[in-house]
Design a protein that fits this description.
CATH topology of the largest domain: Transferase(Phosphotransferase), domain 1
Number of strands: 10
Order of helices and strands: HHEEEHEEEHHEEEEHHHHHHHH
Radius of gyration: 26 Å
Bound molecules: adenosine-5'-diphosphate, magnesium ion
Shape: globular
Number of domains: 2
């Protein structure tokens, strides 16, 4: 009988294994289906967008009488409505091939992809071509990061967001390119070449344009999640445009759980460093604060060597959080192992010492953008209305901003020495014991500026 029992259980095991396999297969198919649906929806949106743009171009070519305008409006709302539905069959057509473009020069060679300046052969128009990064974690299918980049850029049509013209494909399956308007500079490369920082009136203009764009994104429930000077493009007409939506995503209220592995270290908000899983627009506002500081001095404001060092530099500049200034911060995952000094820094004084030429309202704005507590950072609309922008010197009109020779326009660029956006799958290195150890060694060196970080 023993043999029988063995046989039974072996058979049972085989059946169980088979069932498990089937279940897994079912799960996989379901996930695959969901992904395909997402892909299809995105593709549909791209094609509708292209059709809408073609339509708008045609419309633009005709003289606009009143009657005509009314018809246009109807047509546009028709296109809008159809975004929610399946596209009419006539609007389907395949993406064009990248061979319609002639590459002029590389602009930027990153570790993941590259951007080049190119000319559309048919029209002679100069554009920027960005090859989408294919995620090595994704086996097959279109990477979700690429989809988000396309979706967010398509949604974010704004004067100060880079214009996505079209998606084109190469001969390989994984070759997908964004065709964008070409801009002569990015703020990082530009500032590296400038002998002096921008003037206060110019900084105001740039900051207003940036905040306008970010406010628009937030109004449309998009977080950029990688605001930094290399992702801000500038043309020779004094206009900046927000670019690189590779980290962007939709969010909601209340904010969903999202990865903390976002935003390039030097521009990363304290709540992210402390491991918050729920965060909101305030992380982009923090980055704007860092960019404001960088525009004032031409140097990145908080250049941490790693997550812990970043946090330490933040506390040096902004003081340490307390239960009063940031209720509940101690509950954040990485805050538990952190013991902070009792003596409070006066953030206003530190900022004034660091930026002696900044007016009182300027330092008030910077201080509020860099509030440790995300809830007290002002939303974009409030930033735009800040008295700093109303006082003298007033913001310069864009047309009066200086122009510069374009590196992107002529030659291959160096790779930036600053850190790049985080990669999916890299865990932040702030956790329990690690944190303590690294800080312990800092205790000796970190005595400048009257600030000391003491740890367990
Ligand atoms: N439309 C554009 N016009 C001109 N230069 C661009 C454009 N888009 C990107 N670049 C340049 O390429 C760099 C990298 O592009 P980005 O979109 O930020 O890609 P990545 O995800 O690799 O950071 C930018 O910092 C900028 O210098
Ligand atoms: Mg970038």
């Amino acid at each position: 009988m023993a043999a029988g029992r063995w046989a039974d259980s072996a058979e049972d095991a085989a059946i169980a294994a088979q069932r498990k396999k089937e279940k897994e297969e079912e799960k996989r198919l379901k996930a695959e289906k969901a992904r395909q649906a997402e892909e299809e929806a995105a593709k549909r949106k791209i094609q509708e967008e292209q059709a809408a743009r073609a339509q708008q171009r045609d419309d633009g070519n005709e003289r606009a009488g009143k009657r005509r305008r009314i018809e246009d409006e109807d047509m546009k709302s028709e296109v809008k409505k159809s975004n929610l539905l399946r596209a009419p069959r006539s609007e389907w057509y395949p993406s064009r091939n990248v061979s319609n473009f002639e590459r002029l020069n590389h602009i930027e060679e990153g570790s993941y992809g590259w951007v080049s300046r190119a000319r559309e052969i048919g029209t002679g128009e100069v554009v920027a071509l960005k090859k989408l990064k294919m995620d090595s974690n994704d086996t097959g299918g279109f990477p979700v990061t690429g989809l988000r980049e396309i979706q967010c850029l398509m949604e974010a049509r704004h004067k100060h967001v880079v214009d996505l013209r079209e998606i084109v494909v190469g001969n390989e399956l994984d070759e997908v390119y964004l065709v964008m308007e070409f801009l002569e500079h990015d703020l990082k490369t530009l500032q590296e070449d400038m002998s002096e920082p921008f003037m206060p009136s110019e900084i105001k203009t740039l900051l207003l344009q940036l905040t306008d764009a970010v406010g628009f994104l937030h109004k449309h429930w998009i977080l950029h999640r990688d605001l930094k000077t290399s992702n801000i493009l500038m043309n020779n007409r004094g206009e900046i445009k927000l670019a690189d939506f590779g980290m962007a995503r939709y969010f909601g209220d209340p904010a969903p759980q999202m990865t903390q592995l976002v935003v390039t270290l030097w521009y990363r908000a304290p709540e992210l460093l402390l491991g918050a899983e729920r965060y909101d627009q305030a992380i982009d506002i923090w980055s704007i604060g860092c960019i404001f500081g960088e525009l004032l001095t031409k140097e990145p404001l908080l250049q941490g060597k790693n997550e812990v060092d970043q946090l330490s530099k933040i506390f040096e500049l902004c003081g340490v959080p307390t239960d009063e200034t940031w209720p509940g911060f101690k509950r954040l995952p990485n805050a538990k192992s952190l013991r902070l000094p009792r003596n409070q820094q006066n953030m206003g004084a530190v900022i004034r010492a660091k930026f002696p030429f900044l007016t009182a309202s300027g330092s008030d704005l910077l201080t509020s953008l860099l509030s440790l507590n995300p809830a007290t950072r002002p939303p974009a609309q409030e930033v735009l209305a800040h008295p700093y922008f109303a006082e003298n010197p007033r913001p310069k009109s864009s047309a009066m901003l200086p122009t510069f020779p374009s590196k992107a326009g002529q030659e291959k660029r160096r790779r930036h020495a600053s850190p790049s956006a985080p990669v999916r799958g890299n865990a932040p290195k702030i956790a329990g014991s690690d944190f303590t150890d690294i800080f312990a060694s800092r205790a000796n060196e970190e005595s400048g500026a009257g600030f000391q970080l003491k740890l367990v």
